Amino acid sequence: MTATTGGIEKAASVLRAGGLVALPTETVYGLGANAEDPAAVARIFQVKGRPPSHPLIVHIAGAEQLDDWVEKVPAAARLLAERFWPGPLTLILRRGRRVPLEATGGLETVAVRVPDHPVALALLAAFGGGVTAPSANRFGSVSPTTADHVRAELGDGVDFVLDGGACRVGVESTIVDATSEIPAILRPGGVTREDLEAVLGRPIVVPSASPVRVPGEHPSHYAPRARVVLVEPDKVVAEAELAQELGHQVGVFLPPSLADAPVKAHAVVALPASMAAYAHGLYGFLRELDERECDLVVASLPVEEGLGLAIANRLRRAAGPRLSA
Ligand code: AMP
Ligand code: MG
Predict the structure, then answer these.
(1) How far is the CA of 143 from the centre of ligand 2 (A)?
(2) CA–centroid distance, residue 292 to ligand 1 (Å)
(3) What's the CA gap between 109 and 93, in Å, rounded?
(4) What is the pLDDT of residues 156-174, one digit of tens each?
(5) What is the CATH number assigned to the segment(s) 227-318?
């Protein structure tokens, strides 16, 4: 179901009144507030249970508005904005005066992007200002990719939910530090490293492209209730069956190469072969295994190229150590 014109007007008035609106974007659903209203921004942190030191992304209607929100834009940042907006690319730049410190976790930099979704763009046009929005989920849990996910997770915490159907990309934006002429990826996402390098004409640094499979240094985030264990692709079936025999309710992410393998597990997700389809479905798959009451998810990492880099990053973070059991 898609939001109506009336719904967009209502959402804009909720933002003007200091309320919170869940909005669809091409990446995941966001929990939006008027970026220039510190009290509304503070409510986002409260509803999400997110520490106030974690900065938010300011969503704007078009690349031509960039200079209203940031200062000193390097030529490389300008190039990336022109080439990839609207789209799943977030640029970190120097904070402009309009952006309150509440939205940046106290930093002098700010994250900005133009979402590529007709409902988000219609809302930004109707509202007229910037909308600061993190993913519309409780802090640390799986990001919502449908309006139903948002309602299930945040309930009355959100004043209005705009329904724009399932998010096309399904994983969050690529975050690029663009404060200097040599941009660096801070978080892989919907715009691939390869696409960024093609436009910049040089290699771009990606911090998390390490060969380590289940690192201890990745605190848990993007995580389902079930514990996530990552193993080599050819060990997925054996690991899942062993854990099931030991009494776990095991959910398996079955790689396409093993599509026909019979697996003795509680629930099996047959992964799509295309990375775009995998990214699109990833958070829904994790939610489905939670709904089916799996306590353990056995998965492997995809090849870290294209969207596979973002998928692997989210799986590693989902498998990271938990603050509580
Ligand atoms: P979320 O929208 O929940 O995916 O979170 C927004 C992401 O943007 C987080 O990973 C933040 O750490 C990152 N971010 C936002 N602003 C900044 C900033 N000024 N510097 C570095 N990272 C940022
Ligand atoms: Mg998030």
Answers:
(1) 6
(2) 31
(3) 5
(4) 999 999 999 999 999 999 9
(5) 3.40.50.11030
